[in-house]
Write a structure and sequence with these properties.
Number of strands: 6
CATH architecture: 3-Layer(aba) Sandwich
Shape: globular
Order of helices and strands: HEHEHEEEHEH
Strand order of the largest sheet: 1-4-3-5-2-6
Radius of gyration: 16 Å
CATH superfamily: Peptidoglycan recognition protein-like
Distance between the termini: 53 Å
Helix content: 25-40%
Length: 192
């Protein structure tokens, strides 16, 4: 009976961590298990938005393929323990599990241990984010707050505000700058 209760408890934890947020799990996109994990102190108050600078995707099959390719590159070529992003969002409006809510990612040097990194598939200097992908981000953030992964007063920033990069691209950056959680002044966030 104790074993059955333990298994049921583990199932509930896993469903709570990803299931309620509608996240496509690594198992579902055929991702590899991380080589090692470091746990992220939660709740987190910083969300960093990035882009992949790859082609966009609009189908489940193509988006999952791109996420697998990113993970392969991160693990095989960059020697990361896993895909770097906490989550990846496709043009199909689906959110793909990366390091997730629980683990430290490898998305923004100097900020990984205190943030969630969410990466959009595409090059948003050229591409316009789909309404479905923007709604997926909003739903993920809402769910993160509801489940206690994010503080209710979390700050949303573009990758470019913290390090020298064009990410998340002008068009995506222009979109998130209008959101109420967007932090225009990153002085208190930025590493010295």
């Amino acid at each position: 009976m104790k074993i059955l209760c333990s298994i049921f408890s583990l199932f509930i934890i896993l469903v709570t961590v990803n299931g309620d947020c509608g996240v496509v799990t690594k198992r579902e996109w055929d991702g590899l298990s991380p080589l090692q994990v470091e746990y992220l102190a939660r709740p987190v108050d910083l969300v960093i938005i990035q882009h992949t600078v790859t082609r966009t995707c609009s189908t489940d099959e193509k988006c999952a393929e791109i996420v697998r390719n990113i993970q392969t590159n991160h693990m095989d070529n960059l020697n990361y323990a896993d895909i770097g992003s906490s989550f990846v969002i496709g043009g199909n409006g689906k959110v793909y599990e990366g390091a997730g809510w629980l683990h430290v990612g490898a998305h923004t040097y100097g900020y990984n241990k205190r943030s969630i990194g969410i990466t959009f598939i595409g090059n948003y200097n050229n591409d316009t984010p789909t309404e479905a992908s923007l709604e997926a981000l909003k739903a993920l953030l809402r769910c993160g707050v509801e489940q206690g992964h994010l503080t209710s007063n979390y700050r949303l920033v573009g990758h470019r505000q913290l390090i020298a990069t064009e990410s998340p691209g002008r068009k995506l950056y222009n979109e998130i700058r209008r959101w109420p959680q967007f932090a225009r002044d990153v002085t208190s966030i930025k590493n010295p």
